[in-house]
Amino acid sequence: MTDTTKKRVFSGVQPTGNFHIGNYLGATKNWVADQHNYDNVFCIVDLHAITLPQDPAELYRKSREVALIYLACGLDLEHCAIFIQSHIPAHSELTWLLNCITPLGWLERMTQYKDKSAKQDSIGTGLIDYPVLMASDILLYDTDYVPVGADQKQHIELTRDVAQRFNHLYGDTFVIPQGTFPEAGARIMGLDVPTMKMSKSSDKGGHALNLLDPPKVLKKSIMRATTDSLNNIAFDLENQPGVTNLLTIYQTITGQDEESIINQFSGQGYGTLKKQVAEAVISTLEPVQKRYHEMADDPSYIDQLLKDGAERVRPIAENRLRVVQERLGLRK
Ligand code: TYM
Fold it and tell me: Does the annotation mark 29 as catalytic?
């Protein structure tokens, strides 16, 4: 994360619930694959996590767990800075400044806000402001590309709108970032209910494939995944969402195209498909889990790494914040 001739990538994960294969296939796997081509900044977004109630000790633990998972998945500190969002106060400060130019109506339209707020009795202001904090994360680092899953599309659009509005009102200040979404794996569905996105907030067994689940648990969840009674192996999201989800997981992991996968499984039953998916998932995650457990033995390593990560990105964030403050007339 030192090469300024390269385009910048920024992305992040919330340290809540369990990091699952949707997070991996939709986001982290692609960060790892492309890390050599970009100047990368990867964040653990603990301030986003507290927009819903969290247990403090668990939040602290999860933040470090996510950082280790990033590394275990293959992020290389030669190419990436990894840090915790709350360690750089410029994120909160820029959020306030951008709040003041963001129409409330833009935030009320966000589908994630509508979904999340519908499940809460009492809604904190932070929940509706979530996308402005996300815009601040991205805009502070002059980000060119934001590799994320499909569920973040609307938030990236809002980020672009906020940046354009600021640039229009106060002069060119922010780079307008672009979201990038994988062709396959941008939306992995729950194994139990394949019409709903695989989600960190569900702790129901058989819903998600968690990155740190032991092989036995992964296999059990896949073998009991919901399919259908058509006995036909096809990518058909509308009529066969469960089978399509399993095929998509397989496709994203193996890198094969749809046609060769259909040829491979044609005439086979769902049991065979599930076994093959389980094998592919387990053999992908086993080395990740091994690296994770090796590093988890040394907690001081992770604290030092996060401290170094914050020091590497701090000047970039503070510099952009200073320009925004100047443009707004807060400082000379
Ligand atoms: P989060 O923590 O919900 O998810 C982390 C990443 O995983 C992707 N993802 C999925 N991809 C495919 N299938 C799924 N079922 C699935 N579920 C999640 C998400 O799209 C995301 O890329 N708001 C963000 C965190 C964030 C952020 C940012 C991201 C905060 N600031 C700045 C990018 C840039 C979120 O809640 O991700």
Answer: no
